[in-house]
Amino acid sequence: MLEQILRNLLPNASKYTRHGKVLLGCRRAGTLLRIELCGPGIGVPGNEQKAIFDEYCQLENPARERERGLGLAIARRTAAMLGHRITLHSEVGKGSIFAVEVALPRGGAKIPDELAERATDRPRGGKGAAILVVEDDPDLRGVLKTFLEDEGHRAATAPDGPTALTMIAQGEMRPDLILADYNLPNGMNGKQLVLALRDALGCPMPAIILTGDISSAALRDPDLPHSRRLHKPVRLAELTAAIGELLAPGGKGARSLPASGTLPAVVLRTKP
Description:
By secondary structure, the chain is an alpha/beta fold. The chain has two domains: 2-103, Heat Shock Protein 90; 118-247, Rossmann fold (3-Layer(aba) Sandwich). It contains eight helices and nine strands. The strands form two sheets. Strands 6-5-7-8-9 form a five-stranded parallel beta sheet, with helices on both faces. Helix 1 packs antiparallel against helix 2 and helix 5 runs parallel beside helix 6 (190-201).
């Protein structure tokens, strides 16, 4: 995940460097490690240094083409999930220094024995839980899928509720948990999707609802049983804890599948 942040920052630095070289290095800053990216580019005016991290703002891109300039927005979003901070020091005509601040482990970089044992024993690949991610933002959807697979889970993704229901109906996945955004397109929000999937599967499948909606209507909407609501930007440690809590034997997300071990048929209904 940290590597992905740097992979999004590097092309941005090289794109705006007309002459000279781009330097990537590290320095200690107290309890932090600063990974710095220095380039003699065009520089960013002070009044635009916050705006360039927005996905709809790209320098030298008056047409606002979405595929251009998204690197900084993705980097900032991923850093927020990891609990890192991205800083920028820039002067017009002189260049810019981007830095990602990462907390150093106390007492050096040695991994404690108990953590090393847990990493060795942790299920990998297809041995973990099956988690269905339903998120309309393709960048965040990809980040969540990568993270879950690195944690040893099997992850599948869908951009909206109807697609997720079709995946289940066609037998593409039998999820142990659903991770869905609250605000989804195409007529079904995350909570409605969870209810539809539970009804189709015949069991109280645990769910995590991600939301950045702070409207009064969203805040008043009560949480579902066997679920957790996490507010964006969600930290990965918080997400990991919620998954562990919901999937723990006898935990809040404990569920029972049909006795036959098979799933009932999923019926897709259209509005009259």
